[in-house]
Structures are given as C-alpha cells and as structure tokens.
Amino acid sequence: MKMMLEFKAHDGEIEDIALGPDNKVGVRWAPAPRGQPSCDGRAVCMQVVTAGRDFQCCVWQRDQLVTGLHWNENLPGIPDKAYRYQACRDSGTFLGLGTVTGSVAIHIAFSLQRLYYVKEAHGIVVTDVAFLPESRRGRELLAGNEAALLSVAVDSRCKLHLLPSRRSLPIWLLLLLCAGLIVATILLLQLAFPGFL
C-alpha cells in the first residue's frame, strides 16, 4: 500500500480514473533503481486517464499531462460546459468513455482518434464502462470485432458496443495500386500531349 504517485489532476471531484493495463501502453512494472520511480523502462511508467467534474477528461503519463479530450471538437456552437465526461476505461489499445447524457465513445488510446460514437446510447447518465478482457475467451466473444465495450447507465440497462475490425490493404496491394496510378497518369499525359515522353 505504498503511494507511488500523487498529483492534482482536476479542480473538484474526480468522476472516474483508469490505469492502462500491464504490458500495454499503460502501466509497465519493473524494478526501479534504488526504489525511485521512473519512465525509462526500468521502473513504473503509468498512463492514467481521468474524468473530472470540471468537465475535463485527461490522459497523463505519470503526473505529466499528455493531452485532454474535447467532446465538442466536432460540434461547433455548443457551449464547452453543456456536457461532461462521466466514466473512462483504458484497454491499452482503446479508450472507452461514457458521458452524463448517456453517450458512449471509443478512441484509439495513443492518438485519441475517435473510432466509435453513439449519441445518447442510454439517454441518461452512463455510470460505468468496461472492455471485454483481452483473454482467449474474450477474443472468442469478440467474433471478429476489434473491441467490445459494455456500458451501464442509470436506466438499469447494460449495452454492448462492438467496434468492427477496420479493414486495411496489404502493403503489396497498396504499392501495386500506386504503380498502376503512375502508369495511368503517364499514359493520360502521353494521350493529351503527344511526344510527352
């Protein structure tokens, strides 16, 4: 029960806090030199996500602010304090968020790019969110989806939010498409300007 870290994260109460899991982008545990915490890989390196009553949701690397989330960045014209974050969870890969209005979102943990958002999924305060565990059984339950987030709200409902697998092109196909585009461009220029080559 030794305190590892203490810092002021928010003005007022903290609604929720999440630590990144072991062996992910979050918490790395290793012996510290002379018992001193450090983020150089030889000691404790914590990634912490906090949601506070001050309308802020922040990502911290130990006690240093990495970035703050802004729920209204894509909704111009709505006051900053119309809504606030209520709950947060960090799977190491994804960040799951619930709001007072019942909205649920999933972000990429390292870039905070929003991948999934359901406005007022519950229509009332989301009291907790949790990812399916990244165990063998958890992967079986995902059924081909990248992540699954459970949300619970004051409406006494639990909802499952599935993040479909993002399709990506193999690198060889991407290179082939680029080469085809270059050849097509050269042929079109040759047709438009005879003697181009």
From TrEMBL:
It is found in: Endoplasmic reticulum membrane. InterPro entries: Sec12-like, WD40/YVTN_repeat-like_dom_sf, WD40_repeat_dom_sf. The keyword Endoplasmic reticulum applies. It comes from the Eukaryota. GO terms for cellular component: endoplasmic reticulum membrane. One of its GO terms (biological process) is regulation of COPII vesicle coating. GO terms for molecular function: guanyl-nucleotide exchange factor activity. Its main location: endoplasmic reticulum. It is a single-pass membrane protein. Keywords: Endoplasmic reticulum, ER-Golgi transport, Membrane, Protein transport, Repeat, Transmembrane, Transmembrane helix, Transport, WD repeat. The chain crosses the membrane at residues 169-193. This is PREB protein.
